[in-house]
Specification:
By secondary structure, the protein is α+β, with helices and mostly antiparallel strands. The protein is built from six helices and 18 strands. α3 crosses α5. The radius of gyration is 18 Å and the shape is globular.
């Protein structure tokens, strides 16, 4: 019986047992795709990653990302958590930058070793369909009056699309309870399979935005911290001048409704019609071990 080493980390954490859990497997090049999927389902975190080799390919490290239900081309907290493991367990010394090769392309990750923060530069955003307020309110199980109609409900992607829904208040965010029948009916016609709601009201005054992210399609009823969707949110906030400016540097809280408080840092700016997006956070190592194949 073979075995493979893995680590567990909390990403976008505020200390141990906060943030989003991630399992990272090393030297996984000999594991089949179907076996990777079985492992991800067994662990049942929102994502599990597999670093294919300790060696670089095309100047980066090849990584595959699986939810409990399927492989995805990109995800945020797996990118930062995997980069942390690469720096600490493969490279073994402080570095300033590395690249992850994922299905969505090459994702640069920079490391602020002084602040213990990792930052990913996400792909330039694309903005898709604008969705109907009433249909989305039925999916969210809230009155349409809770939705901030000054801004659109829209599909946005920096590698993994999400439906961004602006809400008026923290009360509205708390009220959201996904109607699964309406949800699956909606995503039959959308590229995005996840929904992120956000509000300018927060639990903590030093944060700027509160969010929740729902992705039953991927086997994730609610996510504790969603780096990909938050990158899409940062793009959206800049495009629509949500804070009345073309550049943001904000703190986002997530996961409070499922008792996994998380903190994400978002930077984005628009210049000459191009939006640059960066998502950052802290990573805490929780455990390591051997997995029997």
């Amino acid at each position: 019986m073979g075995k493979i080493n893995f680590s567990i980390v909390d990403v976008f954490s505020q200390g141990k047992y906060t943030g989003n859990q991630l399992a990272v497997f090393k030297n996984a090049q000999n594991i089949s795709s179907s076996h990777m999927q079985q492992i991800a389902k067994e662990i049942n975190y929102s994502e599990t990653t597999f670093i294919l080799s300790d060696s670089k390919t095309d100047n980066g490290y090849d990584v595959r990302i699986f939810t409990p239900n399927e492989e995805v081309p990109f995800a945020g907290h797996p990118t930062l958590g995997t980069a942390y493991i690469i720096q600490n367990e493969i490279i073994g010394e402080p570095i300033e930058k590395l690249i992850l090769n994922v299905k969505a392309g090459q994702i640069p990750v920079s490391v602020d070793n002084q602040e213990q923060l990792l930052w990913m530069e996400q792909n330039n955003p694309t903005f898709g369909r604008i969705l109907d307020t009433i249909k989305v309110s039925e999916v969210l199980n809230i009155d349409k009056e809770y939705i901030d109609d000054r801004f659109p409900i829209q599909e946005v992607s920096t590698g993994l699309p999400v439906i961004i829904v602006p809400l008026k208040s923290l009360e509205a965010v708390k009220k959201v309870k996904i109607n699964k029948d309406k949800y699956y009916e909606l995503i039959e016609t959308t590229d995005a399979k996840a929904i992120m709601v956000f509000s300018p009201e927060t639990y903590h005054s030093d944060n700027d935005v509160n969010v929740r992210d729902f992705a039953d399609y991927f086997g994730i009823p609610e996510d504790a911290a969603t780096g990909s969707s938050n990158g899409c949110l940062a793009s959206y906030l800049v495009k629509y001048r949500y804070f009345d400016k073309s550049e943001i540097n904000i703190r986002v809280e997530q996961g409070y409704e499922i008792k996994r408080p998380s903190l994400l840092f978002l930077k984005a700016s628009e210049e000459n019609g191009e939006i640059k997006v960066y998502v950052g956070g802290k990573v805490e190592k929780i455990a390591q071990g051997e997995w029997f194949l």
